[in-house]
Amino acid sequence: MMIKINKSWQPYLKNEFNKLYFKNLKNFVTREYQSNNCYPPETDIFNAFNYCPLDKLKVVIIGQDPYHGKGQANGLCFSVNDEISHPPSLKNIFKEIEQDLGVPYPKSGNLMRWANQGVFLINATLTVRESEAGSHQKQGWEQFTDAVIQIINDNKEQVVFLLWGGYAKKKRKLIDSNKHFILETGHPSPLSANRGYWFGNKHFSKTNFLLEQVGLKPLDW
After folding, report:
1. How far apart are CA 156 and CA 54, in angstroms?
2. How far, in whole angstroms, is CA 110 from its chain's centroid?
3. Helix 20-35 vs helix 141-155: crossing angle, to nearest 10
4. What DSSP character marks residue 135?
5. Which residue out of 65, 100, 146, 176 is catalytically annotated?
6. C-beta atoms surrounding 138 within 10 Å
7. Among 21, 46, 83, 221, which is least packed by CB within 10 angstroms?
8. CA angle at residue 120 from 106 to 118, to 5 degrees?
9. Distance CA 46, CA 73 (A)
10. Which residues are bridge partners to 119 per DSSP?
11. How many Cα atoms within 13 Å fall on the side-chain side of residue 134?
């Protein structure tokens, strides 16, 4: 596994990369990519860090696993590559933005445009085997992404954390609500959304309101 990561993150992650659990994780991921089809492509594993430098970070969205279908995952949670049809969770995200902000439903599901504005789109687990959801869980990624959330918590102020669903809410214990903003709702998956736990959360307008309150530019969702 190649670790190519934006220099703004490097001083904070250097120690993590040297820990035994991460070396074991690296070996596991390397073996998996050699012997199976895995996603995202190896060069995209750390895209969340590369498209959203730590010094530009304003908002954090935490996903669970990368998409496990061919050509979908691009290293940003909930995001798919251009020209790829939108998975159900992403459709529900865009529908909520439409309702909340009156923004027309976009053609591309690539959320790189969010990352470039300071939205850190991180999955709790950064890799997955094709067609096997959760196949790379409990190998060390969760420990790594816990450390990443802790780094953001300790070294930034007034970040808006969007915690969607149970998996993301597990990270709440790492976030100091006295110095950051936390917005929680259900997961955008149809299972949760159709039971009334997603639509109407207005997280996108609320995020922009909070950013403006602290003198930051609102996001173009």
Report:
1. 8
2. 13
3. 130
4. T
5. 65
6. 9
7. 83
8. 75
9. 12
10. 59
11. 1
**Known catalytic residue at 176:** no
Single out the residue of 47, 29, 15, 39 nearest to residue 151, CA to CA.
15
Instruction: Quote the CA–CA distance of 118 and 130 in Å, as a whole number.
Output: 29
The two structure tokens encoding residue 53: 């430098």
How many Cα atoms sit within 13 Å of 76 on the Cβ side?
Answer: 24
pTM over 0.85: yes
Residues 77-113 have pLDDT tens digits of 999 999 999 999 999 999 999 999 999 999 999 999 9
Task: Tell me the backbone φ, ψ of residue 93, rounded to 5 degrees.
Answer: -60, -50
- Nearest 10 degrees: Cα torsion 141, 148, 87, 93: 150
Q: What b-and-e string marks burial along 164-199, b requiring 16 or more CB atoms within 10 Å of the CB?
A: bbebbbebeebbeeeebbbbebbbbbeebbeeebbb
Give one DSSP letter per residue of 173-217, joined into a string.
GGS-TTTSEEEEE--SSHHHHTTTSSTT--HHHHHHHHHHHTT-P
Structure tokens at 124: 């709790």
Provide the residue count of the chain.
Answer: 221
Q: What is the number of helices (H) and of strands (E) in the chain? A: 9, 6
With 90 as the cut, is the pLDDT of residue 192 above it? no
How many CB atoms are closer than 10 A to CB 23? 12
pLDDT at 51: 98
